[in-house]
Automatic annotation (TrEMBL):
Pathway named in the protein's UniProt entry: Protein modification; protein ubiquitination
One Pfam family linked to the record: F-box-like
Species this protein is from: Stephania cephalantha
Superkingdom to which the source organism belongs: Eukaryota
Residues annotated as domain F-box: 60-106
GO terms under cellular component: cytoplasm; nucleus; SCF ubiquitin ligase complex
Assembly behavior: Component of the SCF-type E3 ligase complex.
Intracellular or extracellular location(s): Nucleus
One GO term of the biological process aspect: SCF-dependent proteasomal ubiquitin-dependent protein catabolic process
UniProt entry keywords in alphabetical sequence: Nucleus, Ubl conjugation pathway
Protein name: F-box protein
PROSITE patterns, sorted: FBOX
Functional description taken from the UniProt entry: Acts as a component of a SCF E3 ubiquitin ligase complexes.
Length: 365
């Protein structure tokens, strides 16, 4: 009797385990009739230009009313940013947008400084003759928006009646707009992005918008800008590194160096619009005017963030200063490395007596 009772005791856990497994199996293998309805109405979408003789009936009204040829012409007039958004609409649009014609024109326009022959050689050697792969993998400067850098620094204020130790938080932005032909526009201002984006063009002559040229080599960007209207000509040399938060984004620029140097009057004549060729090969401490020493600036080197023109009005730089500080601190807590050195410059709340945002109107680096 003792042995039989012991065997029954040990068999109870095994039976419980078997029952639990059976319940689990019943849960996973439960018949769900609605799953059989998935994918019943989905039909293969014939790509544009397909030679298939089988008729494809598209149930979507927009696809029946808009022929493929007309849809192709509409997509051909879109910029790559809009093409990417249109590819998220439906499968047919996504397959149509994969046509290499769209990406070939985008690549030849983005890297037009390299020349068509050089671009075709790079396409064959590095990107397996895929224009779309080249567009996503090759570093490029985006021209459909502005690169914005937000910079802050602390400045002591003047003592007042109730405030004996005021502190001012000065905030300003660097704006850069690039063009496919190698030209760029540069502006320093405390104005918000939505106000600056309207006059960041070559017609803006009275808004302290400076013109320059740039070159792109792999992910390195070299730019030179001549400050006009000065008795002692001064050139601003900028070196940046391209990167992206996702593949093909190219939405970040790290500011590696920012140097101001003097140039001779003879070097300026005839090269006002293109100083990049004049300063090519210069060292960081090199200047050609003894009255204007070479200065390598260490402040205001925050990374540039790209903002498309379509999103300029709702970007963070268009918000109030207090809202910007809150968002930057939130990004710091989330571990966003681009904003570490920005948030570290803010004083703690118990040390900051007053906060004033100066509107900087002068020409500064």
């Amino acid at each position: 009797m003792g042995s039989e009772s012991a065997d029954s005791i040990w068999s109870i856990p095994a039976e419980i385990d078997a029952v639990s497994r059976l319940r689990t199996a019943r849960f996973f293998f439960t018949q769900r009739p609605w799953l059989d309805l998935y994918g019943v109405r989905l039909k293969p979408v014939a790509p544009f230009g397909s030679v298939s003789s089988k008729p494809v009936v598209d149930p979507a009204l927009i696809h029946r009313s808009l022929p493929d040829e007309l849809l192709f012409e509409v997509f051909a007039r879109m910029n790559p940013y809009t093409l990417g958004r249109a590819a998220c609409v439906c499968r047919k649009w996504r397959y149509t947008i994969r046509n290499p014609v769209f990406w070939r024109s985008a690549c030849l326009k983005a890297w037009q400084l390299s020349g068509a022959i050089a671009n075709y050689k790079i396409l064959e050697s590095k990107y397996d003759c895929s224009w779309r792969k080249m567009w996503l993998s090759r570093p490029r400067v985006r021209t459909d928006g502005l690169y914005v850098s937000r910079n802050t620094y602390i400045r002591a204020g003047v003592a007042e009646w109730k405030v004996t130790n005021p502190v001012h938080l000065v905030c300003y932005f660097r704006y850069m707009r690039f063009f496919p032909n190698g030209k760029l526009l540069y502006k320093n201002s405390s104005q918000k992005l939505k106000d600056v984006a309207r006059f960041m063009n070559f017609r803006a002559t009275k808004d302290l918008v400076y013109r320059g040229h740039y070159t792109l080599s792999d992910d390195q960007v070299e730019a030179a800008i001549l400050y006009p209207g000065l008795r002692r000509p001064t050139v601003l040399r900028i070196r940046l590194r391209l990167r992206g938060t996702t593949t093909g984004a190219n939405n970040r620029m790290d500011l590696l160096s920012l140097v101001t140097s003097g140039v001779n009057d003879s070097e300026v004549v005839g090269h006002e619009e293109n100083m990049l060729g004049v300063v090519e090969g210069w060292q960081d401490d090199e200047t050609h005017n003894p009255d204007v020493p070479a200065v390598s600036h260490r402040r205001g080197l925050s990374p540039f963030v790209f903002v498309p023109f379509e999103e300029a009005s709702g970007n963070i730089s268009s918000k109030s200063s207090s809202r910007q500080d809150g968002l930057f601190r939130s990004w710091l807590r989330l571990g966003v490395p681009e904003f570490d050195h920005i948030a570290n410059r803010h004083l703690p709340s118990n040390e900051m007596k007053t906060t004033t945002i100066y509107r900087l109107t002068g020409s500064f680096v």
